[in-house]
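Changelog note: in this version the structure field was regenerated for every chain. One regenerated record is shown below for reference.
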Amino acid sequence: MAPSIKVAEASKGIENAQRDVNISFVNELALIFDRMDIDTGDVLEAAGSKFNFLRYKPGLVGGHCISVDPYYLTHKAVELGYHPDVILSGRRVNNSIPSFIVSKVVKLMITKDIPIRGATVLILGVTFKENCPDIRNTRVVDIYRELSDYGMNVDVCDPWADKQELSDHYNIELLSDDFLKFASGEMSQKNRKRYKAVILATAHTEFTELNLDRITDDICVIFDTKGILDRNKVDARL
């Protein structure tokens, strides 16, 4: 039991700030290893062979705790005359990941001579974590908006998100439930849409059952932010 409300609130703040900083470290590693042309997951797996290595994975950081609580702590620190470099630098790294993902996908599309403007793109998952309906502060929305700014036609599939809530809060319309049934081979569909790029943003269990060949064009870019898809079928992973 904490001796005071101040201590209790501070403990909650630093717990989430610590996780944020740890994730930002592996996100920064992902940015570095991308430039070195080596797979971050392979590096982390090898490092994990040491018993005391902390097994954090790179990814989008959203939600109502990890992406928010560090700001309460840093705001108070600045009020008291201290600039918290480590915590804020972690926030900057994590906030940069959506733009990195979009930039990487666009570069891969250009490499494959896929026209950017007007391209059909699919985002798999919009909630801030897997197998959860929570869309609060989801950074997948940043990916959606930046792709749209490039002039792409972006669809979003998420079996966990509430359609009305997503529309009301972010003005994003979800694909129908039939799409997921088609993509997993449970049903046929006439005049099916083929995507030029697919970004797996949330590791919902349902996405592991997808047959990507049913929804992708012959020339397509597939980016896996969570490392759950068959790596032989993806162009890049975070």
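Spot check on this record: The radius of gyration is 19 Å. The mean pLDDT is 94.
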